[in-house]
Amino acid sequence: RTVYVNGEYLPEGEAKVSIFDRAFLMGDGVYEVTSVLGGKLIDFAGHAKRLARSLDELEMPHPLAEAELLEIHRELVRVNGIDEGLVYLQITRGAPGDRDFVYPDPETTTPTVVLFTQAKPGLADSPAARRGMRVISIEDQRWGRRDIKTVQLLYPSMGKMMAKKAGVDDAWMVEDGAVTEGTSNNAYIVKGNRIVTRALSNDILHGITRAAVLRYAAEAQMEVEERDFTIAEAQEADEAFITSASTFVMPVVEIDGVTLGDGTPGPRARRLREIYLDESLKAAI
Ligand code: PMP
């Protein structure tokens, strides 16, 4: 696999970053994951915009213009022959000569930029989407700026491990009695023709897939209600689903051992997935 590091395309085994890189020492970096379908990027502009916002929130310089980032994404997809898969992009505050809590001067420390691809055949025509996911609820113990897409993913990793040990697919995180989001996705319930999902704030990541799906709701003859919901309300909902760049719209069929409906993906979640894939493919670049 060919990867990109700080201006160079290299075989993955030759790519190197400093041990003083602040992402390695302090989790001081941000990332984006953009999906690839039919060799094209899904909602690249949305990801580029959120990346810029994450960088601004952390007072990090923007090392590359959007057009340059797009070019690197496309080149990696091309050289690695990715038809279905993901492009991972990470920008860190870089590697000052030593460890220090205070941000280094951006004049003397340049950001580290890393991109690589992951081939994922079957991303769109997914067996998991046909089956539906089972989730458990766990307490949300992350920090208070979940709207910034940082590489500090230890608690989401712990959450995925809790799910794995419980024999299910993922965990929904709960704070003050309400669902925030999934470990790596936004969470939704469906009641009649209404999609209910938590409103945007610092408490959740502003999903690019979330924005798209809410835009497409009308096409599915559905209304959107952005508000908190509890696990108990979710367990009584008609349907539930999650969204993320790597899963698109993924039905949820069980929450904390309670089966939703007949335990198979519901018609609205399936329809939203269809519309999302259709529309995103049309707009892919
Ligand atoms: N919430 C969290 C915590 C996430 O990690 C992700 C995916 N990175 C999402 C939501 C979904 O965001 P997107 O649709 O932009 O992938």
TrEMBL record:
One of its GO terms (biological process) is amino acid biosynthetic process. This is Probable branched-chain-amino-acid aminotransferase. Keywords: Amino-acid biosynthesis, Aminotransferase, Branched-chain amino acid biosynthesis, Pyridoxal phosphate, Transferase. Coiled coil: none annotated. Its cofactor is pyridoxal 5'-phosphate. It comes from the Bacteria. Pfam families: Aminotran_4. PROSITE patterns: AA_TRANSFER_CLASS_4 (PS00770). Belongs to the class-IV pyridoxal-phosphate-dependent aminotransferase family. Pathway: Amino-acid biosynthesis; L-valine biosynthesis; L-valine from pyruvate: step 4/4; Amino-acid biosynthesis; L-isoleucine biosynthesis; L-isoleucine from 2-oxobutanoate: step 4/4; Amino-acid biosynthesis; L-leucine biosynthesis; L-leucine from 3-methyl-2-oxobutanoate: step 4/4. It comes from Roseivivax isoporae LMG 25204.
